[in-house]
Amino acid sequence: MNSAGAADPSGQDVAGPTEWGDGQVGVGPWEIEHPGRLRPTGDQWDPELLDAGDRRNVVDRYRYWRREAIVADLDTHRHQFHVAIENFGHDANIGTVVRTANAFLAAEVHIIGRRRWNRRGAMVTDRYQHLRHHADVAELMSWAESEGLPVVAVDNLPGAEPLETARLPRGCVLLFGQEGPGVSDDARQRAAQTVSIAQFGSTRSINAGVAAGIAMHAWIREHAGAPRN
């Protein structure tokens, strides 16, 4: 896969929305951006990016790095929470969930149900985020049990514990249902804990991608230190 394209569900490389290559995003060639400075050497550096510039949606510390080197570095300090989202109806929010999981450095994103999903919302971050597929809820639960990770369902259900006061396990799987029906009955019954997000308006629910971001940030506030960027 080249460094200027994102993978779409069909497996073809297409231009990512933040990687057009001819805009002002990112940096230009090394010699132009750093006149008079020696060109860096080492396994993490990508010669093509050093020559042509790095227009990817990455933080500055990873400019000109090879994708594999970025992933390897991220793997040294990923957080202990996982994210799972049910995809039994081609949920359009999965890309947003993946992008947010990357921002908060989740260990993995687990997609339950349909394997195919619209990657455009991920804004190319799926290249740097570990993804795992499970055919159904039972398979996810079996995996989580084998890893010693409690599953925390996030849904506004009767008896749910308010996320604002709940204590989230350091190692856990945050589970989100698809847009509309929310967490499936099977997942709800198997989850070790269910938390809800306080709402004050007229709607009964919030967007699944937004809910995922709120829950992940709640984990970050409770367990994570200052960012390295």
TrEMBL record:
It comes from the Bacteria. Residues 81-217 form the tRNA/rRNA methyltransferase SpoU type domain. Keywords: Methyltransferase, Transferase. Residues 1-45 are annotated as: Disordered. The keyword Transferase applies. The keyword Transmembrane does not apply. SUPFAM superfamilies: alpha/beta knot. Signal peptide: none annotated. Pfam families: SpoU_methylase. GO terms for molecular function: methyltransferase activity. One of its GO terms (biological process) is methylation. This is RNA methyltransferase. It comes from Dietzia aurantiaca.
